[in-house]
Amino acid sequence: MSQSKNKTISLFKKAFFAMLFLLGGLTVNAQENSEAADVQEATSEVISEEHATEKEGVNLKEMIFGHTGDAYDWHITTIGEEPISIPLLCIVYGQNGLDVFCSSNLGHEGHRTEYKGYKIAEEGSHAGKIVEVSTGERPWDFSITKNVASLLISCSLLLYIFLSIAKKYKENPRSKPTGKQALLEPLIVALHDDIIKPSVGKNYKKFSAYLLTAFFFIFLNNILGIIPIFPGGANLTGNIAVTLVLATLTFILTNFRGTGAYWKEIFWPEVPLWLKFPIPIMQFIEILGIFIKPIALCVRLFANMFAGHTMVLILIGLIFIFGQMSVAAGGAISVLSVLLITFMSLLECLVCFIQAYVFTMLSAIFIGMGQAEHEGHE
Amino acid sequence: MSLLTPDFGLLFWMLLCFLLVATILGKWAWPAIVGMIEDRGNYIEESLRKADEANAALANLKAENEKLLAEAKNERLELLKEASKLKEKMIADAKTQATIEANKIIENAKESIQLEKDNVVKEIRSQVAELSVTIAERILREELKTGESQTDMINKLLDEVNVAKS
Description:
The complex is a heterodimer of chains A (about 375) and B (about 170). Chain A has helices spanning about 1-45, 45-55, 60-70, 145-170, 180-200, 205-225, 240-255, 260-265, 280-325, 325-370, and strands spanning about 75-80, 80-85, 90-95, 95-100, 105-110, 110, 120, 130, 140. Chain A is mainly α. Chain A has 2 domains: about 85-145, no CATH class; about 145-370, no CATH class. In chain A, the strands form 4 sheets. A 3-stranded antiparallel sheet of chain A has the order 4-3-9, with no helix packed on it. In chain A, strands 1-2 form a two-stranded antiparallel ribbon. In chain A, α6 (about 205-225) packs antiparallel against α10, α7 packs antiparallel against α9 and α7 (about 240-255) runs parallel beside α10. The longest helix of chain A is centred in the last third of the chain and has 45 residues, at about 280-325. Chain B has helices at about 10-145, 145-165. The interface of A and B includes residues 69, 163 and 165 of A.
């Protein structure tokens, strides 16, 4: 079972890297094109026109990282020169103490302003982040960024959905489930009875809250991520910070709640003596495994979601790149791109569920390993 | 923005929000939902089992009823049979009784008829005797009106007596 999972995962990884290569190639092409255009147009006069062509030149890399990354405001669209975005709250703790202000004070892409001694760095290692104007260092940054806003929205949704379902269950126990209750009940039952119970073992009740919450958190955020407009569109589960927190929680629940039998398996596994003494080969591998498992969890979810977003964005970017070369090419490629994007989005819907499912299942299995019993060897 | 270095702010918010959501749902949502689903499952199972039992009981009851009905029918048949037998017997008894009684009556009648007949015969005899005596008297008187005839008669009778003595 986990082998096939690994296969699909490696497939995704291959696709991801293939796309990265493609992306690299395309940006180079785009740059060449814009340079050629620059040379041509350098002969003709005005600076503003050159400025305009620079603007028109599609920088695919920037576009992709702009869409998949975090931001201080929630950009919706740009009409002409005027970006339309939802300003969010900046909360920073720097040299001057705590500062809370609106992100619109810092200007927008291409037109940054300073505010209260803070600015958004245009370049350098902190590019795109709030830094202090005087030192160029990062303050403690608790800003409600696009991802945090999306996180708050999804958490409120989760709370609303499941508390209202729970209320429904309490009010009409034993009645036929209706509405979202009927929609989610099979999922909850399948997770609880078919994954959590058999994987974790007899102490499953202590961990089911975490595992169920993790599944629905990941699933909801994955789905929100592929909705292109406002309440969705943030690439939350494709952000390493989010997956890192989830993987760390699995790590903590696995190891800090681990039984004696689990630790014995690590420090004195049942293998031929020469494998564990005098050179502790097995112990080394096992201890490495403790950390690799959650790291794999973290990277798997992040890479899958990030790759999905990136592929869709590349396909959209293709339209603009070909459109720059000629209108006909752009028109032709747009038909192909739209078809491919439709297919990719459908595939992403599947991936949204699969990744949430895989994360929950592997977490349950790791936690189950931590709950090993002395007799229950393999 | 860096792809692989986690952002501190997001880490902080994610940890806070996720733990909060997990705690709240773990306290108020999951136990209620999972518990109720399990409870409902048990309830449905129990109800099905009970329904099955009730059905079985009903089927039993039906069979029993049918058995009772059949028995009752049999009993009725038997009763009817017995009653008809009794009737026949009664009729037969009555018949024999009647015959006996009738015979008796006939016997009695015969006897009394005989008696009556005997009486009548006796009476007739006595009357005949009386009549014959009277007639004889009358005849004798007629015949013995004269003296000689009376002597003749006496002689004759005497002869007869003599003959009888010897």
